[in-house]
Design a protein that fits this description.
alpha/beta; TIM Barrel; 8-stranded parallel sheet; 15 helices; 18% strand
């Protein structure tokens, strides 16, 4: 069975689920480290396993451009190429293509775009994107969708969700008439769009639900709208998403965003936030963000976080970590990334435990009070 619900929290829509793929089983709620180009920046695959990551995200657009389908195919798929034996989800590349506003043209067939590497021209259709992901060999394939800017006019969004639904159907047809390349089953998720308009989100969700995808994602959020607007959109959209399929909120986000979305019934997340913040010298801790480069940390010989069981927090002081960043040492980004991703993995582990014990709202309140307390670090 690909998906099953293990437990619900009685006080809200939070739930613990289990997803089984050809490369193993994972439980939700889950946060996926972003491994855009076949690597999660500044951390090794061995370390990803040690911190408890068992699902990572790759990106079709980037992998298609470099190293390319031929290299990945000849290796036997992305799992072998990067030596990762657990599940991989690949984003369709839609967000990346549509962010190239000056370098792409959209029509009913697909989207023409120019590579940000060398300016070469390429054309993505729903069908080619499915087949690229067949070549990549990801466990979970995402369909090509149209991603709009925020804010976007109602009529423009209305036309966009029509196109997204048409592309989703073409993706599903192509997926069903092709076969996996490497001997394990792949699954395909549809992506719900509709910007901040509740009626259009409902229309998109209901249209995709009729196509019977293996899972469903909410796309087009965390692009500048207020947090409360995002939470309302998620809550309203979940109402029209199948209960017996995984629900994935794309590109989100902060610990607060994750917990608020879990409360509303979301199962899966990804975001560059923990890794990007790590490379910039900011750690996520149980008492909020710790900016290592601040002068006040020069003589701080304490652990950055006694409550997160990361290799970094258990072995190095704030002062040493600051020294690494101020000296522009490569190890700085590595140790900070190990910590931040372990912080996110532990947050999801604690979240699943709280849901299973029917105390999620109590856990969320306690976690956020501490995380947002602004207490100075010792």
């Amino acid at each position: 069975m690909f998906f099953k619900v293990l437990s619900h929290d009685n006080s809200c829509k939070a739930r613990v689920c289990e997803v089984t793929t050809g490369h193993g089983t994972f439980q939700t709620p889950i946060f996926m480290p972003v491994g855009t180009q076949g690597t999660v920046k500044a951390i090794e695959q061995r370390e990803l396993t040690e911190i408890g990551a068992n699902l990572i995200l790759g990106n079709t657009y980037h992998l298609y451009l470099r190293p390319g389908e031929e290299v990945i195919s000849k290796t036997g798929g992305l799992h072998k190429f990067m030596n990762w034996n657990m599940p991989i989800l690949t984003d369709s590349g839609g967000f990346q293509v549509f962010s190239l506003s000056a370098l792409r043209k959209v029509n009913e067939k697909g989207v023409e775009f120019k590579s940000h590497h060398d300016g070469s021209s390429h054309f993505f259709t729903p069908e080619t994107v499915v087949n690229i992901q067949r070549s990549i060999g990801s466990d979970i394939i995402m369909v090509l969708d149209e991603c709009l800017e925020n804010p976007a006019e109602y009529e423009k969004v209305k036309g966009s969700i029509r196109l997204t639904s048409e592309w989703a159907m073409r993706s599903k047809i192509e997926f069903e008439k092709t076969k996996p390349n490497y001997g394990f089953k792949q699954f395909i998720f549809g992506i719900i769009q509709g910007s901040v308009y509740s009626d259009l989100r409902r229309q998109s969700a209901e249209s995709l639900a009729e196509m019977e995808f293996d899972g469903y994602a909410i796309g087009g959020l965390a692009v500048g709208e207020e947090n409360e607007v995002m939470y309302d959109v998620v809550e309203n959209t979940v109402e029209f998403m199948p209960e017996d399929k995984p629900r994935y909120l794309m590109g989100v986000g902060t610990p607060e965003d994750l917990l608020n979305a879990v409360e509303r019934g979301i199962d899966m997340f990804d975001c560059v936030m923990p890794t990007r913040n790590a490379r910039n010298g900011t750690l996520f801790t149980s008492h909020g963000k710790l900016r290592l480069k601040n002068l006040e940390n020069k003589f701080n010989f304490n652990s950055p976080d006694d409550e997160t069981d990361s290799y970094t927090a258990q072995n190095f002081s704030v002062s040493y970590l600051r020294h690494l960043f101020m000296s522009d040492e490569i190890l700085a980004a590595q140790l900070a990334t190990i910590h931040n991703l372990r912080f996110y993995m532990k947050l999801m582990e604690d979240t699943r435990k709280a849901i299973s014990e029917n105390r999620f709202l109590e856990f969320k309140k306690s976690f956020l009070e501490k995380f947002n307390d602004n207490v100075s670090f010792p």
